[in-house]
Every structure is written in C-alpha cells, then in structure tokens.
Specification:
With 228 residues, the chain is of the alpha/beta class. It is 34% helix and 25% strand. Helix 3 (96-107) runs parallel beside helix 5 and helix 4 (111-124) crosses helix 5. It starts with a strand and ends in an 11-residue tail after the last strand. Bound molecules: adenosine-5'-triphosphate. Residues 11, 13, 15, 17, 35, 37-43 line the site of adenosine-5'-triphosphate (ATP). One of its GO terms (biological process) is cell division. It is a peripheral membrane protein.
Length: 228
C-alpha cells in the first residue's frame, strides 16, 4: 500500500529531514512511527499526503508514484488518505455533523449520501446522537473522535495520524489507539506517529523508528530508549 524507496527530503532551508528512508506498509497493516523530536516523523507523513515531495527517491502510495503525480490529480490522492492531527483542527463555529461532513462537501457528495456516511462514521467512533452539538461542548477525547470520524468519512484506504493522543490522558489515549485498530481490522492501512512509547509497547504492532532522518525498522529498540 505504501512504499518508500531511498527517500530523502531536504527543505529549502538546507535541513535534511529524511535521508535514504526505505520501508513498506502492506495493505491492512498497522504500524507506529516513533523517534525523537525533529527525527522526521511529520515530514514522512507529509510526503505520504503529497504535502511535500521528496528531494530524492520515490514515494508510492496505492500504486501512484507521488513525485510524478500531476498537480490536477493531487486532490484525488488526498481523498484516499485520511489524516488525524493532534489538535484535531475542528471548526468550532460548526456542528459535529458539519465538521465530519467537510471532506464530502469538498468532494461534491450528494446531501443524502453525506447524511448516511456522516452518521456511519460517527457511529464507528461512538458519537452517534451528538451530531447537532458544537465540538466545544464535547470532551478532548470526544473531539479527537470527531477528528477521526472526519478522517474516515471518505472511506480512505490509508489512515495516518500525527500525535493523535498528544493531549489525552493514558486511558483515553488507549481508547483512541483501539479505535485505530478497529479500522485496521476492516482492511484500512494505518500509520500513527507518536511519542507515547508506553502505549506503543502495549499495542504490540509493528514499529518504525526514525533517528536523525534515518529509519531503523523493527519492533525492538536499536540501542536503548534514549533515541525515542
Ligand atoms: N517546512 C520546513 N522547513 C524547513 N525545515 C523543516 C520544515 N519542516 C520540518 N523541518 C525540519 O526537518 C526536521 C524534521 O522535522 P519533522 O517535523 O519532520 O520532525 P518530527 O519527528 O515530526 O518532530 P516532532 O516530533 O517535534 O514533531 C527538523 O529539523 C525540522 O526543523
């Protein structure tokens, strides 16, 4: 589903955020991406969304080589990728329903289909019945669930998350990670960048580790916890 082949990313400022990164994620696989602050995690996710392009190497997502993707096809690519952020980027002057419906509105989905899909997405994250509320009336954990519902409302083949539990307590964090596992169980490929090593260890999933822009792939620490 995802293949990075010797990918390097140097920002115009001269920062080499990623150097020669290669890995593959199979369809329906779930993995965690860890590494110290500045190791390149967000950059790697941005390359998958085609928000950045590699300086060298190839990023292939669902059969498309993203470096060669024509600009006009970028929106179609983005629809295949659901994205969840730490600060969930919700619109607080809109209802829960409107927040989740946003990607469908942009895609021009009919009103009837939008209603059906939004309710299905809210049901999956356990928020059915709260669609008329404003996100501000919900807890931090519930707000993150709205962000997840919005990310999956398009039924993306790939779900990526950047620090999705950053502001949550351990119990809520575990619930959110279990929610991601449920999407994996129905065939979605999931990649989650996180600093929460304790949680990653409990989840027993594949782990990709970045260190100074280079990837150490595997489940175990390479040389102790100081790198992560
Ligand atoms: N738009 C940008 N322009 C220039 N340099 C950038 C840009 N984005 C990231 N960088 C640099 O690239 C390196 C990797 O950053 P990145 O945000 O990918 O790391 P990260 O592992 O996600 O860090 P964190 O855990 O703190 O979010 C850092 O040195 C950062 O300063």
């Amino acid at each position: 589903m995802v293949r990075f082949d010797r990918v390097s990313k140097r920002y115009p400022s001269g920062n080499e955020a990623l150097s020669g990164v290669s890995f593959e994620l199979a369809r329906g696989e779930m993995a965690f991406l860890t590494g110290h602050s500045g190791a390149g995690k967000s950059t790697l996710l941005k390359l998958m969304m085609r928000m950045e392009v590699p300086t060298r190497g190839e990023v292939i997502v669902d059969g498309s080589n993203l470096s060669r993707l024509r600009e006009g096809l970028v929106p179609y690519h983005r629809r295949k990728v659901g994205v969840v952020f730490q600060n969930h980027q919700l619109l607080f002057d809109r209802s829960v329903f409107e927040n989740v419906a946003l990607p469908l509105l942009i895609a021009g989905t009919s009103l009837k289909e939008t209603g059906r899909r939004v309710r299905a997405a809210l049901d999956k994250v356990g928020l059915l019945g709260k669609e008329k509320l404003n996100p501000i009336q919900l807890s931090g954990g519930e707000q993150q669930r709205i962000g997840i519902a919005r990310a999956v409302v398009n039924k993306p083949a790939l779900l990526i998350a950047d620090e999705p539990t950053g502001n949550l307590d351990p119990e809520l964090s575990a619930e959110i990670m279990n929610l991601f596992s449920q999407f994996q169980q129905v065939g979605v490929t999931v990649l989650i960048a996180t600093h929460d090593i304790a949680l990653v260890e409990r989840m027993n999933k594949r782990r990709l580790i970045l260190q100074d822009g280079q990837m150490i792939e595997g489940h175990q620490f390479n040389s102790g916890a100081s790198h992560v």
